[in-house]
Amino acid sequence: MRTRSKIILGIGALALMAGITVKMRQADVGTMLFERAVRERVGRDTTAALPDGLHIALCGTGSPLPSPSRAGPCNVVIAGKQIFVVDVGEGGGRNINMMGIPLGKIEGVLLTHFHSDHIDGMGPLMMNRWVGGTNTSPLPVFGATGVEAVVAGFNAAYAIDNSYRTGHHGAAIAPPSGAGGKAMPFTLPEAGKGNTVVVLEKDGLKITAFRVDHGPVDPSVGYRFDYKGRSIVISGDTKKSTSLIAASKGADLLVHEALQPKLVAMITAGLETKGSKNLAQITRDILNYHTSPEEAAESAKEAGVKQLLLSHIVPAIPSKFFYPAFLGDATKRFGGPIVVGEDGMILTLPAGKSTITEDNLM
Questions:
Q1: Same domain for 208 and 349?
Q2: Nearest Cα to 334, choosing from 221, 239, 253?
């Protein structure tokens, strides 16, 4: 019996030692893999290798409807070495970081309108842009009338936190003069007296804002970017809009919001069944100030754009399997390529060429 007990104890000890060894090996392997990931991803700048031209990176393709794979509306437009963000919904700043786009080099944010899902990522973006590049001046935030109040609100909300950052890291890392944002308001022409205004011209880049129809939300705009013969238009939130079609004439790429009414109607019916009448009414209301994929395709055809990219996806689409249901008849209404946007996607329009290439930075 003693011999048997010794054997059992010996086997147990060996098993324990083997378990410890396996765990140690797992820890070593985990540490090694983590170290490699740090070398490859931390501090990387994916914009450095981009060719001269226009690029749009999708840092958020979602909407107020929750989606595990889509942040709130957010776009990064890169023109040469200039980096601008158009709208920044919740999670947008995090995605910009994950995509290897240096937040410290962002030159400005352009807001299409002031719905919460288009601005609720502003605070983190302003903070990370500030300390990410030791910026000594606030982040310029362009927008139509009302942007002053939005920026002032975020500045007030983050003022105490900003003081903590400087107090902890010092003024050399977090200079107080660089915290927060600076409103850069522009005035649209009066109704009936034009729809566009040039917001910025710099180093070959021209940014034009144009009215869109997202009533009762007013003002609401889209933006056109022109750089070295290439052009990208971002619709903002809108129903099918003649001003958007006019502003998009001949553009290389139209980035258009899209809501599929047939799928939203199913959500409405489900909410009614569950007794959620308030939310059901909201899903009915949103139908009258957004654009269906089919209507976006019609706009792309009427404007003569080369490619259509759909974003601000409503409802949330869980996988590519559902894309045909989301698109409906859109492919029958526009003969060019139609892409359903996904977070992390980047489209490149090299200067002096007519090509549009697609990649994913996440």
A1: yes
A2: 253
Same domain for 131 and 6: no
Query: Which residue has 């919740």 as its token pair?
Result: 90
Q: Are residues 12 and 60 in the same domain?
A: no
Q: How far apart are the first and last CA of the chain?
A: 62
- Determine the Cα–Cα distance for residues 49 and 81; give it in Å rounded to an integer: 11
Residue-wise DSSP of 112-169: S---HHHHTTHHHHHHHHHHHTT-SSPEEEEESTTHHHHHHHHHHHHHHHHHHHHHHH
Residues 234 and 296 in one domain: yes
Q: What tokens appear for 13 in the block?
A: 């000890």
Task: Name the residue range of residue 63's domain.
Answer: 47-360
Q: Residues 154, 290: one domain?
A: yes
Total of domains in the chain: 2
Please give the structure tokens belonging to residue 52: 């001269």
Q: Pull the structure tokens for residue 340.
A: 């359903």
pTM assigned to the model? 0.91
Contact predicate 256/224, CB 8 Å: no
Q: What CATH number is attached to the domain comprising 193?
A: 3.60.15.10
Calpha distance 275→284 (Å, rounded): 15
- Domain-located, residue 11: yes
d(CA 99, CA 24): 32
Q: What are phi and psi of 341, to 5 degrees?
A: -65, 145
What are the pLDDT digits (tens) for 200-248?
Answer: 999 999 999 999 999 999 999 999 999 999 999 999 999 999 999 999 9
Active site residues: 117
Q: Please provide the DSSP assignment of 50-85 as one string.
A: PPSEEEEEEEE---SS--TT-PSSEEEEEETTEEEE
219 preceded by a cis bond (ω within 30 of 0)? yes
Handedness of CA 349, 68, 147, 141 (dihedral sign): negative
Strand order in the sheet with 253-259: 196-202, 205-211, 221-227, 230-234, 253-259, 307-314, 338-340
Q: Give the pLDDT confidence of 156-208 residue by residue, as tens digits.
A: 999 999 999 999 999 999 999 999 999 999 999 877 777 899 999 999 999 99
Q: Is residue 110 part of a domain?
A: yes
Residues 28 and 53 in one domain: no
User: Does a structural domain hold residue 178?
Assistant: yes
